């Protein structure tokens, strides 16, 4: 990902809009600003994760597996007959919106570090079920309080109402993403 280091002045944006006079300068400025902030947040998170000997990809996989473990334990505790299905590499790839090859590489490294377990499915031995290890659970219990504190400080200049509004606005932007790729 390229990091956008500065947002052009509105006059510079307007000068480029001679090629598209129907475009709104404020919409372009908002989009560029959103990309700039996103780049900065990703950069800061990369540094934060690196300082804690983890990558964003590995973190997200471990969080998915930790959540699945919690759901499974909760279902067992409540003696539910239908337990959540085991998580497969394909499930993880779909949940994180990445390729299966990307997940295979992440899982290989996580397994080598003894942070996940791979087990052949009892129903279909060609499939693997992935679970989090106790070592990874302990790591997350230690890491998450500080991580959430830092994420909270990132958003601390916004009130709860502003955070809620931001979420709603970003959801609206998300709904329009397909218009970028339409032909």
Tell me what the structure shows.
It is a single chain. With 183 residues, the chain is mainly α. It folds into two domains: 1-51, no CATH class; 56-146, Arc Repressor Mutant, subunit A, CATH 1.10.10.10. Helices cover 64% and strands 5% of the residues. It has eight helices and two strands. It has helices at 10-16, 25-51, 56-77, 89-96, 100-112, 134-154, 160-175, 178-181; strands at residues 116-120, 128-132. A two-stranded antiparallel sheet has the order 1-2. Strand 1 and strand 2 form a beta hairpin. The two termini are 24 Å apart. The relative contact order is 0.08. The mean pLDDT is 89.
Quick structural summary:
By secondary structure, this protein is mainly alpha-helical. It has 2 domains: 51 residues, no CATH class; 91 residues, Arc Repressor Mutant, subunit A (Orthogonal Bundle). 64% of the residues lie in helices and 5% in strands.
